[in-house]
Amino acid sequence: MFEFERPRSGERALLVHINFNSQSDQDDLAEFIELVRSADVVDIDVIVGSRQNPSAKTFIGKGKLEEIAGQVEAQAIEVVLFNHALSPSQERNLEAHLQCRVLDRTGLILDIFAQRAQSFEGKLQVELAQLKHLSTRLVRGWTHLERQKGGIGLRGPGETQLETDRRLLNKRIKYLNSRLDKVARQREQSRQARKKADIPTVSLVGYTNAGKSTLFNCLTESTAYAADKLFATLDPTLRKLDLDDQSSVILADTVGFIRHLPHDLVAAFRATLIETREADLILHVVDCADDDRQEKMFAVNQVLEEINASETPQLVVYNKIDLPDFQPRVDVDEEGNQWRIWVSAQKNLGIDSLLNVLKERFFSETASYALSLVANEGQIRALLYEQGAIEEEVYEDNGDIALKLRLSPTLLKRLTRKYGVAEERFTKRLDTLAGVA
């Protein structure tokens, strides 16, 4: 695996934040500081400036560049982090002048993802994103770019070191793409199996640190890693969530989104993000205590649009209501549709309302049926008992079992598809079992 530049824990970092015509604000700077802390960089100093437009050569002006250089020398700064996207040439020019490492916002986010990835798939995805980012910056740091010397015993392949690096890099990217394609096929098989079983999928999405993993753990009684830091969750987690005895969904916890999420990351995580695109419902988790929540919701919806998931039905979950001391409730629109739920995953407030909304969304149309089973259909009877669907049963003289059932559409589909019970065998809305054939 390739080695990448990474801010080491405890090293001194200088942050640079430039405002351009009010397009950036202090909230962006506060978020960037949280990003840096999430990368385990402890000692932080900040330089803020303003410009009409970025400089093509160094992004910042000469005066600001000299100010940063003075701080780097005076405080023994080891890495300068820009809260902006820098071009490869800008990074090279800044490093040459400052004589220290320079990383932009994209490089920092990639570094955090590299630290968080735990699963084999997550590591592949992060490495692919890093390599794509690095491929545009191969020139940086190399001093042996001249062609290999000629002469007896000294003739080489005729490549510069840069060309060799680029060839090896492209080879590795091709390999990672092939492995991730295999992962995507495996995920598709799992999705098809869930569709055949008629189990709905609900995907948790939201801005990073909105509380998705805490809500996921609260709903599924799971132990997915949750922490009060940006990008605490990277690897996707899927769990079965039982809504009652015969109703369940698959709940998927996904990576948090952020403003200006690097396109290389979105592309690399396509196998993971497709879980969101193919979901039956998106739970958009929002930190209701965040004053910037509307802008962050907009950023999340932008990413959903980028991965072609903007048409998936969405339910907004306002989390952390215990911080501003709000009460749990369910908001409905003018047509009576439930569209926003107020909960606290940390304090277990409003969770029952959320479960009821999910149950109504997917399993509200239960109905009574009558079904007659023959003696060798005990497996179907066992399933119906397991799902709590049997309201009454009578053993007939010929050995058949007459059942009165209450079924959801999902369970009815499972019986007809998986167990091959013909749909015409179900008689709807019989009040008694007498005369069931």
Structural description of this entry:
The chain has 13 helices and 15 strands. 39% of the residues lie in helices and 20% in strands. The protein is α/β, with parallel strands linked by helices and 437 residues long. The C terminus is likely disordered.
Detail the topology: elements first, then pairings.
Layout: E1 13-20, H1 26-38, E2 44-51, H2 62-75, E3 79-82, H3 88-98, E4 101-103, H4 105-116, H5 120-135, H6 161-196, E5 201-206, H7 212-220, E6 237-244, E7 247-253, H8 263-268, H9 270-277, E8 281-287, H10 293-306, E9 314-319, E10 329-332, E11 338-342, H11 351-363, E12 367-373, H12 378-386, E13 390-395, E14 401-407, H13 409-417, E15 427-428
Parallel strand pairs: 1-2, 1-3, 3-4, 5-7, 5-8, 8-9, 9-11
Antiparallel strand pairs: 6-7, 10-11, 12-14, 12-15, 13-14
Helix pairs in contact: 1-4, 4-5, 5-6, 6-9
How would you concisely characterize the structure shown here?
The chain has helices spanning 26-38, 62-75, 88-98, 105-116, 120-135, 161-196, 212-220, 263-268, 270-277, 293-306, 351-363, 378-386, 409-417, and strands spanning 13-20, 44-51, 79-82, 101-103, 201-206, 237-244, 247-253, 281-287, 314-319, 329-332, 338-342, 367-373, 390-395, 401-407, 427-428.
Extract low-pLDDT stretches: 140-151, 430-437
Helicity level, as a percent range?
A: 25-40%
Strand order of the largest sheet: 6-7-5-8-9-11-10
Coarse morphology: elongated
Entry keywords:
437 residues; alpha/beta; elongated; disordered C terminus; 4-stranded parallel beta sheet; 39% helix; 7-stranded mixed beta sheet
